[in-house]
Design brief:
The protein is an alpha+beta fold and about 140 residues long. Helix 2 packs across helix 3.
């Protein structure tokens, strides 16, 4: 848990996505499904850090949607569905904020790693989605062979 405070987190440590997907492929049976809900790097302005997965740009390894697709295909996954979910994420956020406003209470921001930075990380992640720096995607893929 202390590693987050040093600028890394379990998610940030996955710099080599092709190797990650290769290891996932290795342990799956042929024809097995892999479903991912990912945050991808968008074309918008540079991200504000800290965020939910990294404290600095040097510890953030977000891949673009295209890089994600290419890494999965290189690891012999067939992409069955690949979709951007930005509008769904924004809608969910709006509904969540409305529920908090109706309750007139503050949300409990929690992070497994660091509760004290969670509000800033959430704020920066929401801003990243709104500005197009972050693109949420859902991917349904299947192991070939």
């Amino acid at each position: 848990m202390d590693s987050f405070f040093e600028g890394s987190s379990p998610r940030a440590l996955i710099a080599d996505k092709a190797a990650l997907y290769g290891e996932v492929r290795r342990v799956l049976r042929p024809g097995s499904w892999l479903m991912l809900s990912e945050l991808a790097k968008g074309p918008g302005a540079p991200l504000d850090y800290r965020d939910a997965w990294a404290a600095t740009a040097s510890t953030s390894f977000l891949a673009t949607p295209e890089e994600t697709r290419n890494s999965l295909e290189a690891a012999a996954f067939e992409i069955v569905q690949f979709r951007e979910t930005t509008e769904a994420v924004k809608s969910y956020g709006a509904r969540s904020r409305a529920m908090v406003d109706r309750a007139r209470s503050r949300p409990i921001a929690r992070s497994v790693n660091a509760r004290d930075i969670a509000p800033l990380a959430m704020k920066n992640t929401v801003r990243g989605v709104a500005e197009g720096s972050i693109i949420p995607v859902e991917i349904l893929s299947r192991k070939r062979g």
